[in-house]
Amino acid sequence: MHLSFPEGHSLSLDGPRIMGVLNVTPDSFSDGGRHTDVDTAAAAARSMLDQGADLLDVGGESTRPGAEPVDVDEQCRRVLPVIERLHDALAPLISIDTTSAAVAEAALDAGACMINDVSAGRHDPEMLALAADRGVPLVLMHMQGMPRTMQDDPRYDDVVEEVAGFLRERLDAAEDSGVRREQVVLDPGIGFGKRFEHNLDLLAQLDRLLATGQPVLVGASRKRFLGTITGEADPTRRDAATAAVTALAVAAGVRLIRVHNVAANRHAADVAFALVARRAAPV
Ligand code: HH2
User: DSSP code of 196?
Assistant: First the structure.
């Protein structure tokens, strides 16, 4: 299994791949305000690539619970100079984290080569057609509600079945719009309209999402449910907790992990993968 990018690049999913988070926002819950000028963002990107990131996810709109939408012009003002600089200086694989097709299109023109849409193509009717037209990999994520209100009262009868069913529907919608199935990554949307128990159920039953046959991405990095378990209120001190999720997700078969601390999670993913490989190794 692999993802195909423009100009003949591809990313094999035979092993775990780490997506480093690069938020160019004043208000993201963990790295907000840290990368708002291009030089600092480029330095952070270089450091993540040195630590073993396979791709970088650049976003100009926080989706933390309670966040207000950021308009297209402001998202572009934040992300485009950073994407251009990264593309010119480091040429990494860059994913654009947005629900707006206009932002995604401008980001692809500036050097991004993948779209990460936390609304799974529901926010902007042009998004699926854009991904099809440009032939880029597309992450479809589950979210109940919208960031501003999603944590008010999330409810499910069977969270895993409902999330998997939603993602199967969005996969079909993407395919109907011309996106190639093998380019679609599914994401359960940890923390997006989910209570503590919902997040645990989704992570404990990743096999049910992997049964779709699609590559799965998990983004649990530093999220609040980890603080609930560990008692750690500061998101930047949740990297060991994040690495535990990474190891278990990789052992379950997840091949894309979205994280803030690349070094810790690169190691966790590689160790988990090496151990799982021995399960299948001949004696
Ligand atoms: N989580 C966040 C943002 N984008 N994309 C995907 N595919 N999956 C996720 O779990 C996911 C995501 C939230 O984390 P972060 O970017 O660190 O914070 P903020 O939304 O406050 O910028």
Answer: H
Vertex 271 angle, CA 266 and 272, to 5°: 100
Cβ atoms of 207 and 164 closer than 8 Å: no
Q: Does residue 249's CB lie within 6 angstroms of at least one atom of ligand 1?
A: no
Q: Return d(Cα 30, Cα 32) in angstroms, integer.
A: 6
User: Distance (Å, rounded) from C-alpha 262 to C-alpha 265?
Assistant: 5
Ligand 1 and 21: CB distance under 6 A: yes
Helices and strands (H, E) in the chain, number of each type:
10, 10
Ligand 1 binding pocket includes 75 (Cβ within 6 Å): no
Question: What confidence score (pLDDT) does residue 66 get?
Answer: 84
Phi, psi dihedral angles at 66 (to 5 degrees): 90, -10
Going through the chain in order, the beta strands assigned E by DSSP cover: 2-4, 10-12, 17-23, 55-59, 94-97, 114-117, 138-141, 184-187, 217-218, 256-259
Q: Which pTM does this prediction carry?
A: 0.96
Ligand 1 atom nearest the C-alpha of 191 is 10
Determine the atom of ligand 1 nearest the C-alpha atom of 219: 10
Identify the CA nearest to 100 among candidates 77, 80, 121: 121
pLDDT tens sequence across 151-164: 888 899 999 999 99
Catalytic residues: 223, 258
| Contact between residue 33 and residue 43 where contact means Cβ atoms under 8 Å apart | no
Nearest by Cα to 187 from 118, 253, 245: 118
Determine whether the shortest distance from the Cβ of 64 to ligand 1 is under 6 A.
yes
Atom of ligand 1 nearest to the CA of 30: 17
| Residue of the CA atom closest to atom 3 of ligand 1 | 63
